[in-house]
Amino acid sequence: MFAAWGRRKKIEQAGFHQLLGKAKDDEFVCIDCEMTGLDKRQDALLSIAAIHINGKRILSGSARQWVCKPPAMPTAETIRIHGLRPEDVANGISYAELFAEFLPFIGARTIVGYHIGLDKGFLDQQCQKTLGFSLPNRTLDIGHLFVKRQQRRSGNEHVDKRFATIMHELAIPTLSAHDAYHDALMTAMAFMVLR
Prior knowledge:
By secondary structure, this protein is an alpha/beta fold. It is 45% helix and 16% strand. It has one domain: Nucleotidyltransferase, domain 5 (2-Layer Sandwich).
């Protein structure tokens, strides 16, 4: 209780009151993050995309994507995954600039993603370092929603919840993978089927 009050006070002091409103039940934001790796202790955010869902509509026209300048540049290994090279992120925005735009965009909406715990973990850590608080938003993971759906339909306890499998099973068009905008858009389309 005290931790929640302390975070609320820090959010108010930082001027991000949009995070503290009551989220509407039919408004969501689908996100995807690309990072220099998967270890929060040593890796950093590179790119974030966010797309609003209002009711039964994906608002792709108002989607946003940010490229950040990380403290450590991407390696050859991670460049093969997400395609972001050092020259692509060298002119990226600072994390302070990112959060100044990203936080008002997401507001109090529930954040939807694939392996959302990983993405939100990176966002929380960087937001904590930059602004002194973590995001208060609820999250939904399409992987978990897909598993529940498949288990209800088949009774099978073991469900393949790889991103490509989810897209295939839900007949979602496959866009280029490991691109923050495309992954967020595919996640939004999958969420519309699963919700």
